[in-house]
Specification:
Distance between the termini: 45 Å
CATH class of the largest domain: Alpha Beta
CATH topology of the largest domain: Aspartate Aminotransferase, domain 2
Radius of gyration: 22 Å
Largest sheet: 7 strands, mixed
Number of helices: 16
Number of domains: 2
CATH superfamily of the largest domain: Type I PLP-dependent aspartate aminotransferase-like (Major domain)
């Protein structure tokens, strides 16, 4: 088939997700290697967002590919009721890298499924049903996960995909505080409000949070936030679930973002970088205290592809690559370099309201006014299909050979952890050029 036929069939017969279907013309990708992917015309693009913030090792990592090949030859599938060597090997490895105390694992095939399992486990274990999530969060697209999501993707799904029992707390956003406070004078009011919610609600089973919020703006909490949240949960007999689907596996300069605050969650969910996205794998990890409950109580969850051998083998390889190539330490070093480059951009462009990040996980937020922090677009614009300025800039970046994810009013910079300083320089230079579009909007 010609490239035109491939694109036409894709657009006509498959759904483009989180979008209106009209005028969807997806770019055909034919190859990818390292930090780059190639379209059907032969043009290469620097992958500054690791596709969907997931190809952490870069494209065509040979160790991960070899692990998939060898597992396919050895044992391509086994029903989840059987033990396999690869399942045991990955379990042993996870005990070494996960936050201490997480010792029982449920393997699925995506981050949304990992969160579905976490919510069900929390409800079964506690006998309570309410889940506190936060506004400006994203936890997945299936029923419970989208119900626990705070961004406009939930609005578009309601009421079809909504479950009962999810309530929302204010997010932790020191740039745009939902409570109109300023850190540190706020005394972390956003987390204190969660305790107020727990005490004024009945039947709260768990608090579900992204330690560093991903799609919704790379929101990093102050150092006091997570220790206080841990204590609030303990004092009120509520579980703490951390969603590390996007922030895990070295992305923030630690194995997991929650490690920055030395806090041990009751349940951790993750996916994406666990296999560098070469094969779909989700993980729900719990404490043994939670696990022991199910010795005498029915564990009412499972699916056909649970603990699929072909998903587990590449996870082992990916974890070893992170270790052997010291990519987590590298994320700290290159994150500092990226931060300096982006701050220089901010000094040049009045359209940049904020630069924030940790490790190789950054947001560039655009505003009409740096003082009032008024954004160019809103969440309502996103779900209504109104053209967004950040999407226009992303399109211009693609013309210059840089792929960068955008969301409402900011960009998400999350390159493969193997990116070089030269590649960062190239990407920031092209972003610098394209931000003139935003600066011009300020004059209108």
């Amino acid at each position: 088939m010609s490239p035109e036929e491939i694109v036409a069939i894709t657009a006509k017969h498959t759904y483009g997700t989180w979008r209106f279907q009209k005028n969807w013309t997806p770019l055909q990708i034919v190859d990818a290697e390292g930090c780059y992917f190639t379209d059907a015309s032969g043009k290469k693009y620097l992958d500054l967002s690791s596709q969907l913030m997931c190809v952490s090792l870069g494209h065509k990592n040979q160790a991960v590919i070899k692990a998939i090949e060898e597992q396919a030859k050895k044992l391509p599938y086994a029903a989840p009721g059987f033990a396999t060597e690869v399942r045991a090997d990955l379990s042993k490895l996870l005990l070494e890298v996960l936050p201490k105390g997480l010792e029982k694992f449920y393997f699925s095939t995506s981050g949304t499924e990992a969160n579905e399992a976490a919510i069900k486990i929390a409800r079964m274990y506690t006998g309570k049903y309410k889940i506190i999530s936060r506004y400006n969060s994203y936890h997945g697209s299936t029923a419970a996960s989208i119900a626990a999501t705070g961004d406009p993707r939930r609005w578009a799904v309601e009421p079809a995909g909504k479950i009962d029992g999810v309530i929302f707390a204010p997010e932790c956003n020191c740039y745009r505080c939902p409570l109109n406070h300023s850190y540190p004078d706020c005394e972390i009011a956003c987390v204190e409000y969660i305790e107020h919610m727990i005490k004024n609600e009945s039947n709260v089973a768990a608090v579900l949070v992204e330690p560093v919020v991903g799609t919704n703006g790379i929101l990093i909490p102050p150092k006091e936030y997570f220790p206080r949240l841990r204590k609030i949960c303990d004092d009120n007999n509520v579980l703490l679930i951390v969603d590390e689907v996007m922030s895990g596996w070295g992305r923030t300069g630690k194995w997991f973002a929650v490690d920055h605050w030395n806090v041990q969650p009751d349940i951790l969910t993750t996916a994406k970088g666990i296999t560098s996205a070469y094969v779909p794998l989700g993980l729900t990890a719990t404490t043994m205290k939670i696990a022991d409950y199910f010795n005498d109580h029915y564990f009412a969850h499972g699916h056909t592809y649970e603990a699929h051998p072909l998903t587990l083998a590449p996870a082992i390889a990916a974890i070893n690559e992170l270790r052997n190539k010291k990519l987590i330490e590298r994320a700290v070093e290159l994150g500092d370099y990226l931060n300096k480059k982006l701050l220089t951009l901010k000094s040049k462009h009045p359209s940049i309201g904020d630069i924030r990040g940790i490790g190789l996980f950054y947001a560039v937020e655009l505003v009409k006014n740096q003082r009032t922090k008024q954004p160019f677009n809103t969440k309502e614009d996103k779900v209504s299909g109104k053209p967004l300025l950040v999407d226009k800039i992303s399109t211009e970046l693609m013309k210059r050979g840089v792929y960068l994810q955008s969301w409402v009013s900011h960009f998400i910079i999350a390159p493969p952890l193997i990116i070089t300083k030269d590649e960062i320089d190239f990407a920031v230079e092209k972003l610098d050029e394209c931000l003139s579009l935003a600066d011009e909007e300020l004059k209108k």
